[in-house]
Amino acid sequence: MRFYSPGKLLITAEYAVLDGAQALCLPTKKGQCLNVEENNLGIINWISKDEHGEVWFQDQFKKDSTGIKSTFHHKNSADDAAISKRCIQILNAAEQLSGQDLFAKGFNIQTALEFKRKWGLGTSSTLINNISQWLKINPYILLNKTFGGSGYDIACAQAHSPITYERKNDTQVSLKAGFDPVFSDHIYFVYLNQKQNSREGIAHYRTNAVDDRQILIEKVSNITQQLIKCDQLAEFELLINIHENVISKALNLPKVKTKTFPDYNGSIKSLGAWGGDFIMVTGKKDPTPYFKEKGFEVVIPYREMIL
User: Entry's SUPFAM superfamilies (predicted)?
Assistant: First the structure.
């Protein structure tokens, strides 16, 4: 059995999407696949491969009267130990939601990424969506029981084109956006050479005082709608500049352009958790030389990134 989910980029409403703001979300051309086969051994063999087909994580799980356990000893890698615990959490939640004993027969599980893990395009969300497809369970509930978050990344993992996403009274509303900018040749995505911890970013957002969250939601949702409709690069740039100002004030953090690229001749917008992963930039000419000179080697044109 093979399952596949595309990655994601959150273009608008970062953080505010948690409180019900409407977000513009773009599924990416690269994603993650999950291959599952029964092994009749009563164990789960788990192998995760990167974009080059190299194994970046491996474990074996068994279940006894005390629960699911790893048979590996990840003494030399704190990261592997943490990933192992997360896998056990996912397996426990998946069993609970599906009503199945995954160890009655046992499975060989293999995941394969198409993008670099550190890019923040959805290593976790694509996994959650793939497992949910396999076991026919609600991916949003599985997400809540494991990683948490707004759920926009799950909506993206199920999409084949740009969408809007919002949470209304604990209900997820995902709609096709019709976003296909005629000026897409002037939009690029730049990797900031570091992966940002989304949970830390959310915690920062929650602890910062915002005068009125409802006003924030309305402002951001309005920008989302205008972005989808705009057909001029100048208007697009104005809208993302306004969005940056709004979120900067809400987070009490400097904008990435002010902090890192003050001399860039174009607009820059943070995507997702501020401070890492990708930024979206506009430019009337290819901005690759500018960013490479500053040490940022990964510059991807819109049409190469977005599904």
Answer: Ribosomal protein S5 domain 2-like
33 in the same domain as 164: yes
Is-above-0.85 flag for pTM? yes
CATH number of the structural domain spanning residue 288 = 3.30.70.890
Q: Are 153 and 6 in contact (CB under 8 A)?
A: no
Do 162 and 195 lie in one domain? The reply is no
Residues in Cβ contact with 13 at an 8 Å cutoff, skipping those fewer than 6 apart: 21, 22, 23, 24, 220, 221, 224
Q: Are 23 and 17 in contact (CB under 8 A)?
A: yes
One pLDDT digit (tens) per residue for the chain, 307 residues: 999 999 999 999 998 999 999 999 999 999 999 999 999 999 999 999 999 999 999 999 999 999 999 998 776 677 899 999 999 999 999 999 999 999 999 999 999 999 999 999 999 999 999 999 999 999 999 999 999 989 999 999 999 999 999 998 889 999 999 999 999 999 999 999 987 666 666 776 767 756 688 899 999 999 999 999 999 999 999 999 999 999 999 888 899 999 999 999 999 999 988 877 899 999 999 999 999 999 999 999 999 999 9
Q: Are 13 and 24 in contact (CB under 8 A)?
A: yes
Number of domains in the chain: 2
Domain that includes residue 252, residue range? 180-305
Query: 120 and 147, same structural domain?
Result: yes
Give the 3-state secondary structure of 49-84: ECCCCCEEEEEEEEEECCEEEECCCCCCCHHHHHHH
- Judge whether 265 and 281 are in contact, CB under 8 Å: no
